[in-house]
Amino acid sequence: MASLSDVMSQHPNPVQMLRNSRMGIYVYPVVAPEFTNWRDEQRAWRDSAVLFDQSHHMDELIVEGPDAEAFLAHVGINGFANFDTNRAKHFVPVTPNGHVVGDMIIFRERDDKFILVGRAPTANWTKFQAAIGKWKVRLHHDPRSPSRPDGERVLRTHYRYQIQGPDAPKIFEKINGGPIPEVPFFHVDRINVGSRRVQALRHGMAGAPGLEIWGPYADKHYIESTILQAARDLKIDIHQVGSRAYSTNTLESGWIPSPLPGIYTGDGMLAEYRDWLGADSYEANGTIGGSFVSENIDDYYVNPFELGYGFYIGWKKDDFVGKAALEKMKGASSNRKKVTFEWNKEDVLKVIASGFEDGTPYKWIDFPQPNYASSSADMVMQDDKMVGMSMFNGYSYNERCVLSLGVVDQSVEVGDVLTMRWGEPEETQKTSGEKHKQAEIRVRVSPTPYSREARENYGGGWRKTTA
Amino acid sequence: MASLSDVMSQHPNPVQMLRNSRMGIYVYPVVAPEFTNWRDEQRAWRDSAVLFDQSHHMDELIVEGPDAEAFLAHVGINGFANFDTNRAKHFVPVTPNGHVVGDMIIFRERDDKFILVGRAPTANWTKFQAAIGKWKVRLHHDPRSPSRPDGERVLRTHYRYQIQGPDAPKIFEKINGGPIPEVPFFHVDRINVGSRRVQALRHGMAGAPGLEIWGPYADKHYIESTILQAARDLKIDIHQVGSRAYSTNTLESGWIPSPLPGIYTGDGMLAEYRDWLGADSYEANGTIGGSFVSENIDDYYVNPFELGYGFYIGWKKDDFVGKAALEKMKGASSNRKKVTFEWNKEDVLKVIASGFEDGTPYKWIDFPQPNYASSSADMVMQDDKMVGMSMFNGYSYNERCVLSLGVVDQSVEVGDVLTMRWGEPEETQKTSGEKHKQAEIRVRVSPTPYSREARENYGGGWRKTTA
């Protein structure tokens, strides 16, 4: 089997294919599970400072060449007008039908060179667009690190770190050897890390201001040591964040990392894409998990308006992939909106308690990261009607509750208490979940981002624009 | 600071030193946290088959030379009379005061060559005995793999796997290309794994029969692939066990991996040992965690009778380190006995519930492995009297409860309900635990091993001899 199309032809429908994939848990690889302990690692991004090692869990795609800008403006929905080398963007491509393919952070390193960082679907889609078009671009794809390296060495093109938290600015000044430039949100400048001059993006994944820095992978240990030593010298309680806590930071800041790429249906370019995509791709091997089972995989797709990305759209661009579809979707009453679901404590404890009883328990809620698929889809009900979909889960020690991110119908209001069906209705072949029965968990609809700090102090951007 | 003595001189007493060590969680390194999910990985050692990758978490010490046997018989308490090359033993050294230093599994590979596998304290103590004696032995020490390799390559001298579970025998026959020899418990023979001829120990850590095999590390991937392919061909639901589930298998089988080495006090040889041991040793950096805080570190020590190792003792040997002390300890009414503590479900849920409330929660019970120190010591109370010490914790999905292993006074009976103090009374510098308050958890005293299968079908050995 060479292509995604070949794999799909072996299954009654793509939902069944992905619900029964045996790929396993979507792993945050290489980085140690815990450095101190995941509770303190979560607490530190709110209270002191954290170092996120993001060197391993994301694909990196370098797009270079005289047509690089025009090509990427064609692939992504984003406006490119103000995109100079001191900026980054949240790059979002959609299909010709307007469904989100995925997203990556895109950096402009030179006029003719861009670096994209994120999950595989956007990298794959971008490579495909280069393959079928006539763009003068050179692409280099560095896929994420292996999920279970088992003692083998892992190398990447770049190291990538984030320093976050209220004490982070003191560390920046120390490693830079003096005050750092005032960089607006999602802008890039250069700072010193000891003897190295590195690019730094003003970012803030965990709801507190921070910087993302990157450079040649060979510098990784030097950079890490310099940052940690600076924190020690300043007596800052910095925590390196391990893979168990890492993915939960988004629950507080409100980005959904895992929309299902809207590429399994559709004719024309989409059919061609499925023939082009390898049988070993993320798209052919990823998993859908959760209580929502539809015969129609389109029901799992989301559009950019639903994720709060509508204001990115470069309407002034002559054309880009999906523009016509988005024009129709814009303002549609069927568009859902992004929210945070706050899980009811008693219901969560009921689920946990079943792990202490004989018989088939409820689906285990693993702490701090209960996700058991690369894309989660749990039904959120109002009485007997499905009014939303929960898409990414996690326990926050800071908020002392389990949260999830997802989308709800326009009719749903912040403060509404809905019911989420937790666990799968059928037994699947997935290896990431034990045999279980379904539970009902009440969820309170809350704004996104959930974190008060993020909500109030964020420098503009998509996190503010929803619900 | 060069030695353990130097490090100890910086602290008011060794208990405070170890309770405040910042070494972090005692990690099961390199092996992926989960391959499928830890619930199914636990279930599989009871229901089908598992592959434990034990290549990384243990020190290995090779002892060779004309005096190898005499030397080891001097260092360990074990009888060596019947120790030929087709046997393994559970090697236990004690101090001159009769306190357990640690334990390793010892294999006799040749008449003059032994391999010891286990935690560092026994390897260190054995090296010291060689250093201070006049034995014609050559030692090679291969310490455990780094806790957080961070993408760097890890190499060991040997790979080491166990295949366990009710379906394991079918796999043995398949990889061997025919029926395997009948090997008695803790005896060694040779079997084929595909094209390789390997040593195999009849073992059974998880309460079900199994084999442990080892060989040159370069063969690791071949061996693993051959085993997994055999299981696939046989349609056996084999699970590779990840580092999160791995350490919990001992809760069902009853071995305590983590007694505190009894080496921090005592004169003569023990004082000399502390000067000899490095400041970077396990002993200088390990952690004590738990509710039991004594000024006197001797209160954390155990003797071999308490762990059920009394029947190993080679009384007929002319002498061995600690013999005189053990002679006095034998049959003493102050010797405690090893038991399993079954934690009360409601009390466990109360602790978990506090993670959903504001304020300082109870000490988090992390699933499936709540240990937060290299040696755990939680007080077990009968009314106001401490009658036992809980020493190693874990949740068993098979038994649907949290269990711990420890020792209790002779007066305690199976079935007694005692109260464990969970969490530390004081704030320590340990990095592995968040700020917390103490909880009381009722525990029911249960036999060791707890697992019915292990209790009834074990082929003799220390697991049967306690409580």
Automatic annotation (TrEMBL), chains A, B:
Biased composition range(s): Gly residues: 458-467
InterPro entries recorded: GcvT/YgfZ/DmdA, GCVT_N, TrmE/GcvT-like
Lineage top rank: taxon: Bacteria
Disordered: annotated span: 423-467
UniProt biased composition (Basic and acidic residues): 423-443
Enzyme class: transferase
Name under which the protein is recorded: Aminomethyltransferase
Record's keyword terms, sorted: Methyltransferase, Transferase
Pfam families reported in the protein's UniProt record: GCV_T (PF01571)
GCVT N-terminal domain span: 34-256
SUPFAM superfamilies, alphabetized: Folate-binding domain
GO MF annotation terms: aminomethyltransferase activity; methyltransferase activity
Record-listed E.C. numbers: 2.1.2.10
GO aspect biological process, one term: methylation
